[in-house]
Design brief:
The complex is a heterodimer of chains A (395) and B (303). By secondary structure, chain A is mainly beta. Chain A contains 2 helices and 18 strands. Helix content of chain A is 4%, strand content 51%. In chain A, the strands form 2 sheets. Chain A has a 16-stranded antiparallel β-barrel. A two-stranded antiparallel sheet of chain A has the order 8-9. Chain A starts with a helix and ends in a 7-residue tail after the last strand. Chain B is built from 10 helices and 8 strands. Chain B has helices at 2-15, 32-42, 65-72, 89-96, 146-161, 166-191, 207-212, 231-244, 258-267, 287-302, and strands at residues 25-31, 46-52, 76-79, 108-110, 198-201, 216-220, 248-251, 270-273. The longest helix of chain B has 26 residues, at 166-191. The chains are: A mainly beta (395), B alpha/beta (303).
Amino acid sequence: MIWFVLMLSALLGIATPVFAQEGPLIRSQSKRPQSFNPDISLDGLFAAGYFSEPENLQFGAHDPNERGFTLQNLELTFTGVVDPFFRAEGHLIFGLEDGESFVEVEEAFLTTLGLPYGFQIMAGQFFTRFGRLNRLHPHAWDFADQTIINTLMFGGDGIRNPGVQISALLPLPFYLELIGSAQNAKGETATSFLSTSGETFAGRPILDKEIHSGNDLLYMSRLKTSFDLSETVTWVVGTSHLFGSNGTGIDTETRILGIDLFVKWKPLMTDHGWPFVTLQGEVMRRSYEAGKTNTLPALPEERFNTDGFYIQSLYGFKRRWVAGFRYGQADATKPDDPRTGDRWRISPNLTFYPSEFSKIRLQYNLDRSDDLADPIHAVFVQYEFLIGAHAAHIF
Amino acid sequence: MKQIFVWGVLLVAMQIPLSVDAAPIKVITTTEDLAAITREIGGDRVQVDFIAKGVQDPHFIEAKPSYMLKLSRAKLFVQVGLGLEAEWIPSLLMGARNVKILRGRNGHVDASEGVALLEVPRERIDRSAGDVHGQGNPHYWLDPLNGKQIARNIAAGLKRIDPEGKEQYDQNVIQFSRRLDAAMARWSEAMKPFKEKKVITYHNSWPYFLRRFGLMAVGYVEPKPGIPPSSSHLIQLIERIKEEKVKIIIVEPYFNSKTPQFVARKSGAKVVVLPPSVSKATGMTDYFQLFDHIVATLTTALE
């Protein structure tokens, strides 16, 4: 049978040059290409989507969000060592909105190389290291879209802003990392905090607040630990705490707490990294003090607690193939209004990686909200290419 | 209150002495082969640990936080280099925050320094050629004579951070090289009858070994490094094996042997599983045992 398939495909001319591997065989001292250019890569992430309703619930800025084609993300990355003291990286995003092109400074920061006692300082524009997903760029996601809880808490682009972060790997017999950061709290990349004036939250207008003191910044603390249960199973557990002022009143504050878990099983001997199984989840609670309004409609001071979580599992069942399943739910449907109804989403998917530099993904979303009579069905075909330097793998 | 506690813990932690001078020097290597050679050179002055086990494919190692912890405590770090560990070492080194073992520092050893490399691309290459390594084929430790240069590189690193041990390290390099020469004579003798024999390998990971012992790879199960074979490639491979009267297909233990088995069945060649690395788990605890095993397996298979 296999023989027949082989003959057939040979006849159809699915040919690859034989022994293309026999490249130039030179005996020489290696001549390393020396240049001081940074490592550069360009990553293109696209999707074709179909929704059962044209008005859908994909509020993530990089989600496939319309019937037809979406440019999810075109990311230009530069990384390199600055000098003996710092390493730096920059990630610029190019996007399209109604035919207009735009550029975003997704991340640009330096990291210290040589602080003593396991300290490391990061400064610049960066994704807040809250939980597992927020820091990931869209092409590193395991699903075609952002989770509903991340969109709800951190907005369409995730939470990122200029600031500084200090972290330390503690000198303990096990892995324990402490991270603390302070960042600006303004703008659409800090929606649960000072956000953007002119927007609203729970019916209250977001005020144009001046930064008066350190209280008007965004603070995060995170504890992350990891242990190898055996040679094949590794756990990573973290807790994160984010707090800062929000834009609905003079002294109003928001706090977000999160717990995250990641477990990976991978046998010692793998065929190019396959097979593997992962389990990942994050639970978050936001406590938002909304100020009272001075204009109509008159709204009192009020505290809104919003909870949500997602849990996902990936199964790399055969070399180059990964099947995934994700369930997410949250207390609110719309990111700018916690009074909206409960919602949940189920997302199975299947990803094929022709190589480490490309992928094709098929995903189905079943989206349900108490505010809608019927669920929304969506199907995405997502594809990615990466040219240039290889992205670093993080665990 | 909570913050005060956290800072308190940090301050206390700083008081814990991170190293004691009399203690053996902690060396972390990326592979078990490099760990074996480091033990030969460092003797009782060093305490050696490694990340990738010999039974694992060194291209595909997870960047686990526990490895960062190991690297954070190392005085010396030894890697194969040439991009073999490129997928996982950069993020591990960043996470370890140990500046002393970064490239260009005293505690960093790239074991490929000064090794005569094969397959260094002469022209501009791109990834249509698969997972090619731009600086040359990184499987150089599979030529036993390259073990000498690896040993010299490791000794140079050890001398930088432990000058007091200079004599011992130099002596150990000499001893190790002599033992390699003696073993080499034995391995060459055993492999002599098989000079010019043609073989197929799964991945292009054996050019250094084959060249040293006069064998020839006339094809690979992979059409391009890291790219799974298409059916047309396999048909051509089977034809080639028959034409060239190739007897064996060399496969590393971690690759899926289903495809090589299929090619073997259709062509009359046989699959030989050859470990490319020292591995305690399989009973080969040093660099010599690795080649003893490879040579014994190959001579039996080629007879």
